[in-house]
Every structure is written in structure tokens, then in C-alpha cells.
Amino acid sequence: MFCPACGSREEPGSNFCANCGSRIDAARSTPIPVRGRPGAITTICVIGFIAVVVIIPIIFSAAASVAGPWIPAYLGLSAIVGIACFVGLWRMKRWSVIAYTALSAATQIVLLATGRWNILSLLIPGVVITVGFFYFKDMD
Ligand SMILES: [Zn+2]
User: Fold this and answer.
1) Do 13 and 43 fall into the same domain?
2) DSSP readout, 25-79?
């Protein structure tokens, strides 16, 4: 542990700092382990938030309603679930990976049903899900 006054390293269990004489409060000076967010997760979240912002105008576009009247409703729901997933992922929550996987599976079905599926449709969700499960054990 470290002295809260001068920052010098102290022997565990000592009550006073050998360097500056300050009282060492064990509870205060014991560093709280902080699990940092991996860079890959941060990158995915930033891209994800941008993607959701791009999707919202499509909801109100003519192209979406031509594909079927339920498409704007589905896109709206996807945007809301998507934002929730990326907020959860940003905070390293396991449920966000599971929710994103479910959302992606539903999106694949919608794309297949509307004849818009292609291999690229799998690419982005595939990367997000792979990275998500790679860091799953580090999440809470
Ligand atoms: Zn000190």
C-alpha cells in the first residue's frame, strides 16, 4: 500500500509513513482495483453510437416504409435496444453482450425476410459479438 500524503510505498500493516510520518489509513491507502475498459470495447461503443445515430434518420425515410410498414417500428426498437447495448458494453456489463447477440439474430432474420441479407450483414455483428465474448469474463 501507499502513503496517502506523500505516495511512498509502505509495508503492509504499518500505521505511520516511514517517509513523512503521516498516519496511514489502511482503508484509504489500499488501492481499489479498477478494471479498465479494453480499447476494442471503447472503439466498438463509439462506432456503435455513431451507427445508431445514422440509423434514426433512416427510420423516417421513405425507403424504410417502402420495405414494409413494420420496418420503421423495428428500426426504432433496434435503435433503442442498440443504444442500451452500447451503454451496457461501455460500462462492461455482461447483459449487453447477450442483448446485442439477440438483437443481431433478430436483425439477420428481418434482413432475410425482406431479401436484404448479404454476407456483410454478418460482418459487423460478428466482430462486436466476438470481441464482446472475448472480454465477457472481465465484465460484471
Ligand atoms: Zn508519507
Assistant:
1) no
2) -HHHHSPPP--PPPHHHHHHHHHHHHHHHHHHHHHTSHHHHHH-THHHHHHHHHH
Residue 59 pLDDT > 70, yes or no?
no
Closest CA to 88 of 77, 75, 101, 76: 101
Task: Give 16 Cα–ligand 1 centroid separation in angstroms.
Answer: 8
**63 pLDDT tier (thresholds 50, 70, 90):** low
90 and 59, same structural domain? Answer: yes
Centroid of ligand 1 to alpha carbon of 109 (angstroms) = 62
Query: For residue 28, how far is its CA from the centre of ligand 1 (angstroms)?
Result: 13
Q: pTM score > 0.70 for this model?
A: no
**Total structural domains within the chain:** 2
C-alpha cell at 62: 421513405
Range of the domain at 1: 1-32
- Same domain membership, residue 81 and residue 15: no
- CB-proximal residues (5 Å) to ion ligand 1: 3, 5-6, 17, 19-20, 22
Please write the tens of the pLDDT for every residue from 96-114.
999 999 999 998 998 888 8
- How many A from CA of 138 to the centre of ligand 1? 34
One domain, residues 53 and 96: yes
